[in-house]
Design goal:
Layout lengths: L4 E5 L2 E6 L2 E3 L1 E5 L8 H13 L4 E7 H4 L9 H13 L2 E11 L8 H4 L17 E3 L5 E3 L7 H22 L5 E8 L12 H8 L4 H8 L9 H7 L6 H5 L3 H24 L4 E6 L19 H7 L5 E6 L4 H7 L8 E2 L1 E2 L5 H12 L3 E2 L13 H6 L15 H13 L1 H7 L5 E5 L6 E4 L2 E6 L11 E8 L2 E7 L1 E7 L6 E13 L2 E7 L3 H4 L2 E2 L3 E10 L1
Parallel strand pairs: 4-5, 4-14, 5-6, 6-9, 9-10, 10-11, 11-13, 12-14
Antiparallel strand pairs: 1-2, 2-3, 7-8, 15-18, 16-17, 17-20, 18-19, 19-24, 20-23, 21-22, 21-24
Helix pairs in contact: 1-3, 5-10, 13-15
The structure holds (2R,3S,4R,5S)-2-(hydroxymethyl)piperidine-3,4,5-triol (DGJ).
Length: about 525
């Protein structure tokens, strides 16, 4: 049996676990919870209640290497054992030099040695600053130009991966690893040290310039224009113009992360990911500059070939737009963090059905269903005029969706990369799914009633038969065949899957066919007959 790896199915990248396709219906734990195996007992219980099949959880540099060269993997071992007992999987998050563009989790021996492990100078000559453009937040981070930090970080990560191989190679509990967390620098678009200035004024490596110039078709603004209009060679400013500072940071940060990931893969080559603090249209430095935001994804692709997937942390209301941006150019949709408001369950169904996602994982799921904290209110866009963004996700509904998706997983994975698996969500304008000459239209808003959040996933299993996972929508099947424009519903049943087999509950061929409207989460079998 192979260790977990990425494969391609119908042109779609999928995660293989024990040589079978696997969709991570996951949750990411709060930063501190996985530092205690005891504390995690309650967290696993909650994950179980939510029907999750895997958890994303931090392993921090300071925890595993408290003294230089002395490693302690007792917590890692404990977490792996817990997951195995419950038949769950783990994605570890390596909190090394970066955690939210800062160095919170670097060990004390790194933090205290400012000469060897240099800080990023976001103001010349300063190891620390207040971010004027970011509520005056106190800020420090390790320098992405410091070879000693990169080497030490890579060594620690490689030792962790070697340990995971030793204890887990046969069991495949750990299935992916995220390298660092929300990389980038804040305050300015690049570091301001003398070394940074010197490198910035030097010629850009020509192979990188050539790569960027020949990949503009996938680029987005303003990077595309900057790359197209810059010089064919020269300094960073000459080649990349107004985008030079951010591209410079992305080049060195992605290169740093690649060194760490490659050192880990040499010991144990699990699929490796990075996550991203989104730019939200702001200036670099207001979000972490150099992190894998959509506009510098091409830089990351070039500089970090050891990274398999780039994933967005999505708390913003324009969820669908971000999913579109991160499921292009061969990057599968892998959402390591997202909100726990009442779209959480619907979005899980949508990302699997529409984007054929590899991972969907609400952050801080431990409190799902509970009233929001002030931080969550702020993160989830409480000022937006959509009450669903301010309503906690219902736990039973979330479990229904995750369990249904899990029961259907072999079928869904077989359909990944094909148009037999589709989904629509009320957050997007799209409301039609076409399967050849048969279509399924959805109506979220009932005539005269207020707008309601909803989702509908449809999977076609034969010419006339579908399974639908739906909530908050009215479903209207139709035919586009002029020879057979009319439709009968031959079968409408609710039910569930067990060991890959459909287990019907009720036959719904009467009033329920006349108005196929679903206020509650429902899994249905639908068979149609088209005629003239
Ligand atoms: C994004 C980070 O990646 C997480 O570790 C956590 O800090 C969340 N933000 C908090 O909202």
């Amino acid at each position: 049996m192979s260790i977990p790896y990425l494969a391609e199915r119908n042109g779609q990248k999928i995660l293989m676990v024990e040589d079978k396709p696997f969709i991570m219906l996951a949750g990411e734990v709060h930063n501190s919870n996985s530092s205690s195996v005891k504390y995690m007992e309650g967290v696993w219980e909650k994950a179980q209640k939510l029907g999750m099949n895997s958890l994303l959880m931090p392993v921090t540099w300071e925890m595993v290497e408290p003294e230089e060269g002395k490693f302690d993997f007792s917590v890692v071992d404990g977490l792996i054992l817990q997951a195995r007992m419950l038949g769950k999987h783990i994605g570890f998050l390596w909190f090394g030099a970066w955690k939210n563009a800062q160095c919170y989790y670097a060990p004390a021996w790194v933090k205290k040695n400012l000469t060897t492990f240099r800080r990023a100078e976001m103001k010349k000559g300063e190891n620390y600053c207040n971010l004027e453009k970011f509520y005056g937040m106190p800020y420090t981070s390790l320098s992405y130009l410091c070879e000693a930090t990169k080497t030490a970080d890579a060594k620690a990560f490689a030792t962790l991966m070697e340990h995971i191989r030793e204890i887990d190679e046969k069991d495949n509990t750990v299935i992916v690893v995220q390298v660092e967390n929300e990389t980038g620098v804040m305050g300015e678009a690049r570091e301001q040290s003398d070394l940074a200035d010197e490198l910035f004024a030097s010629p850009v490596p020509q192979d990188f310039v050539d790569y960027m110039k020949s990949h503009t078709e996938t680029m987005v603004e303003p990077i595309k224009t900057a790359v197209q209009s810059g010089a064919a060679s020269g300094s960073w400013a000459e080649v990349f113009g107004t985008a030079a500072d951010e591209i410079f940071s992305a080049y060195y940060i992605a290169g740093y992360v690649n060194t760490v990931a490659a050192a880990g893969k040499e010991k144990y080559p699990l699929p490796m990911t990075v996550n991203c603090w989104l730019d939200k249209g702001a200036e670099p430095g207001i979000y972490p500059s150099g992190g894998p935001v959509r506009k510098v994804m091409e830089v990351w692709k070039y500089c970090a070939p050891a990274i398999d997937v780039m994933g967005p942390d999505i708390y913003v209301p324009n969820f669908c737009e971000i999913c579109d941006a991160y499921s292009q150019n061969g990057n599968p949709l892998f959402i390591p963090e997202c909100a726990t408001h009442s779209y959480a369950g619907l979005r899980q169904v949508y990302t699997v059905g529409h984007h054929h996602a590899m991972c969907y994982s609400p952050f801080g799921f431990e409190e799902m269903g509970e009233p929001f904290s002030a931080q969550q209110m702020y993160l989830f866009g409480a000022d937006v005029d959509d009450p669903a963004l301010q309503t906690p996700q219902n736990v039973d509904e979330y479990r229904f969706f995750s369990e249904s998706l899990q029961e259907m997983m072999p079928l869904l994975c077989e359909k990944y990369g094909t148009s037999d698996l589709q989904a629509v969500i009320s957050e997007s304008e799209e409301n039609k799914m076409m399967f050849g000459e048969l279509g399924i239209m959805t109506m979220g808003q009932m005539p005269g009633a207020p707008k309601r959040p909803g989702v509908c996933m449809a999977v076609k299993v034969s010419e006339d038969t579908f399974y639908l996972l739906v909530k908050g929508m009215m479903v209207i099947p139709f035919s586009t065949n002029p020879e057979k424009p009319h439709l009968d519903v031959l079968v409408l049943e609710d039910g569930h899957f067990e060991n890959g087999e459909w287990k019907p509950c009720r036959r719904l061929n009467g009033d329920e066919v006349a108005s196929m409207n679903y206020n509650e989460p429902t899994l249905l079998k639908l068979q149609l007959f088209a005629y003239k």
